[in-house]
TrEMBL record:
Protein name as annotated: Nucleolar protein 56
PROSITE patterns given in the database record: NOP
Mitochondrion found in the keyword field: no
GO BP annotations, alphabetical order: ribosome biogenesis
Compartments reported by the entry: Nucleus, Nucleolus
Gene3D superfamilies per UniProt: 1.10.287.4070, Nop domain (1.10.246.90)
Annotated source species: Turnix velox (Little buttonquail)
Domain Nop: 223-341
Amino acid sequence: GILHEDLRLLLETSMPAKKKKALLGVADAKIGAAIQEELGYQCQTGGVVAEIMRGIRLHFHALVKGLTAQSASKAQLGLGHSYSRAKVKFNINRVDNMIIQSISLLDQLDKDINTFSMRVREWYGYHFPELIKIVSENYTYCRLAKFIGNRKELSEESLEGLEEIVMDSAKAQAILEASRSSMGMDISPLDLINIESFSSRVISLSEYRKGLQEYLRSKMNQVAPSLSALIGEVVGARLISHAGSLTNLAKYPASTVQILGAEKALFRALKTRGNTPKYGLIFHSTFIGRAAAKNKGRISRYLANKCTIASRIDCFSEVPTSVFGDKLREQVEERLAFYETGEPPRKNLEVMKEAVVEANEVVAEVKRKQAKKEKKKRKREQEKKRLEALAAAAEENSVLEAEENDIKPKKKKKKQHQDLEAESEQELEAAPENGLEEEKEEEVLPKKKRKKMMQADQEEEEVEKKKKKKKKKARDSEED
């Protein structure tokens, strides 16, 4: 029924009326035939049946008692969510959306850091123009601008700090000498404060970019280890981002992966009937840069072929490993050596057999570790449950003991009162003849009562003391 409804929804959105009716009639007929074969019930399919079913579905909340339209819509939504979750089973750790966002942010940060560092160079260059020629790296220049400040305050004492930033004693000495004979203009303290604050912002952005690159590297090793081992984390992430997802990249043929990122050049070449591009994003790989000019097209085609294999392995393997990526990288290295020296590379079948053996060993090791982790988790959970059960049992025992202790003295008191009443009644019934004897007995009776009451009070005190001792013991056991 759910599949049939999905088919109906798909057909209702994007098809002409005649085709919809024809396809829905075929679907209804197939479902009816399947029910008749399996269950032996005759089914009618047609426009009237479909309308009846639609009416029942629409007014279902009115036909069932205690069901409102709101709860029915919530139930339908929950059913849709559960059905889609069952259809799309994915691992949280292998989601490639984070890779797409992080590589986009990395490219944006590169542009912004370059723009801001050029602004720092221009701004601080009015005061110390010679520093631009000595230090070419943007991050180092921003750190130096923040450290130096006013160039006239530089001295031999600040040489150690310069060496720490530049990591070169000769450059540090050159900066110190240039500061003494600089042609730059004088600068006010307020301007220096603004330059230093802006350069500190650029430095923090650069440091964040390094952290983001580490995050991207770790995420690529989780999602696509073979692709990152073959072509690098950054280039692999760019391929995934350009394709839209790792699944889309795995569906592409090698010819598409080869020119992925060079679509403009491809369509321009097709329009002008010129030469089509040989490479797109994979040009940033080190293999193409190392190849000779005449072999760049050949190595890019070979590399694109290996990239498609690696992406498919990463996409469809249950436990992704970097073994296949390392072996494919070795193959590309051998192919490069073959173009340069003529040494024949190994056959693909031999390399893949070796890779399968190694991958099985790695997967078995990973599964063994996962099983150990699961066992440890189960033990911890069992220990927690056992401790909770013991604590609950101790609490129940303490409560029961307290209740028993509360009930017992009451029974004793009742018995004591009953005994006293019975004795007094017996004494009254056996009333003596002499008046003197009656007076003596009346004097004796209260004394006996007093003694018994005193004994009852003492027993109550002892019971309360026992209660307190038991409560203390229960508290000590719970704290232990």
